[in-house]
Amino acid sequence: MAERRRFVVERSYVVNTTPEIVFDALGDEVLLGSCLNPLERVRIAPQAGGRVGFRDPELGVVIGRVGEYVRGVRLTWRMVQNWPSVLSFDFIADTSGCRVEVIQSGFGALRGVRDDIDQVFSDRWDEWMEAIKTRVED
Length: 138
Prior knowledge:
single chain; 7 strands
C-alpha cells in the first residue's frame, strides 16, 4: 500500500499591533480582497456561522463558513469546496504585539490538483500575512 502524504500548513507570524486589530482584519472583506492575491470577489460575514466565499483562479469558486469566532483569540473557517477544508488562526499577545498562528489542513479535497499544493498555500500565507501586516501595523 502506498504511503499517503499528510498535507498541513503551519505558519507563525508576528504583527506589531494588538490581536484584536489583526483579528478584525481577517474579517474585513475589503482589506482581504486587497491582500489575498490572486483571490477574487472575497466575501465574508464576520460572525460565527457567517459565510465565506471567493474565487481562486487556480482552484475555482470557494465557499465555506466561519466556525469559531472569538475576537482577538481564535478564528476558524470551514470550507466545503475547492479549498483545504479547515483554516484556523490563533492570536497570542506578546511583547512585539501579536503572534498569529495559522494552521490549514484538510487538503484531501484537493487530492490530485498538484503534488506541491501544501507548499503553494504555505507560500501564499507568507505573502498574504505580509500584505495584512503592512495594512494593520501601527
